[in-house]
Amino acid sequence: MTTMSNVIKLGEAEAAYLCEREENDYFDRKSARIKPVQVQDIAVAFANAEGGTVVIGIEDSGTSTESKSLERWVGRSHIEEYNEIIQTVAGLNPGIDFQHSFLYHGEGYANRYVLKLDVRRSLKVHETSKGSVLLRRGAQSITLKGSQIPDLMRAKGMISEEDTYLPSVSPERIVDGKNLADFLASLPLTDKEPLSFVLQENLVESKSLAPTVAAVLLFAENPSALMPKQCALRIVRYDSSHEEIERDKLTGDMHSIEAPLQKLITDAFRKLKEVIARSECWTPEGLKSPMYPDDALYEVLVNSVLHRDYGISDNVLISVYRNRIEFRSPGRLPGFVTTENIQHARFSRNPKLVRLLSKYTNAPNKDLGEGINTVYERMQQAGFVDPVFIDDGANLHVILKRRPREDSADVITRFIHRHGSINNRQAIDLLALESADQATAIFSKLREQGTIAREDEKQTGTRVRWILGK
Question: Can you provide one Gene Ontology molecular function annotated for this UniProt record (predicted)?
Fold first, then answer.
């Protein structure tokens, strides 16, 4: 249905931008001569990815005979001419969520309409009328095949690896194991018979009794020895602050933790605290181990283990640097969760793991969905900047940085007041910087303001020490 609200007049600058904008993961531009089924391909690819916009009625730069970008605006004379395209996209089953509008610009182009389709990201995996599953990557729509389709379904949260059966694992390892017996003993259940419990919870296949991934992760003595894919947690420490990983700065402080989930989380947190304690850097109080809020560390660790994609053969990795701690969890963010709405969105990739783990007496997760908010609050209370979340399409990275929220000048002058002087190494640690160049830039600015001065003008390079200016 077309209304005046979706017939939109653009200014010349807006129209030119659509003609010139670079095509990417979120934007595509096509000629009005395109076949409707080809538009359907683009719409499906956007819905399966992060959503996007396609405008139809603008010629590619390679086909235009004119140098001006607006000459590429070659739409239809009547909006009804786009009906077949709209109906083709709307006819998908299951349907995708999209809106359409008609654009025109200028007096001379009032009868030249461009169709704009805004496609929203979907929680489902969609296919075209021909049965093809496409995904937007860069400026093209890629056809997924084989295992790529269930991988996408897992990424969207439609299916979870936790429900996959492992026929190679003997059910006795779970049903007759001490971990399951101890777990059941702590629950207020009338029937504490292990086999009844795992059948009722769909933790084993009803006929073969093959355990699921969730059963192995929760109750096997050592899940890493039974799982076909890596599922442990590693902790490493670098004597560096740089963003780029420096292999020569990797210390011998490297640990691999393998255990059922509840114990893995407990052991990993204890080991992480030990590793941080062995790290030494400059703080406002002097040269000592850095301090991070325990609640923030614990919540990020729990989320990295609970909400990772166990369909990916990789371990959770925690890297401790002089200025930050980075958590890498295998798998992209699930469902509709993004790095922008992660504080408020609630979507569990492994709901069974989350639910059963919350039943432990000392549950590592309270199943209240407030973990990420706790991380923000504790980092703010400690005077540090907010955590950083990066979804690179394969992994989720969470970075807790010791960078102070307060002004750098105040941090530096207060340190000098307390310790008499400051150098580059101390400033890098105090401000959680990545390089000496950043510290030098800050010192130069404060020197120009007269806030600080060199202790000795003969000092150069890393030997320069700064004192309060007069």
Answer: DNA binding
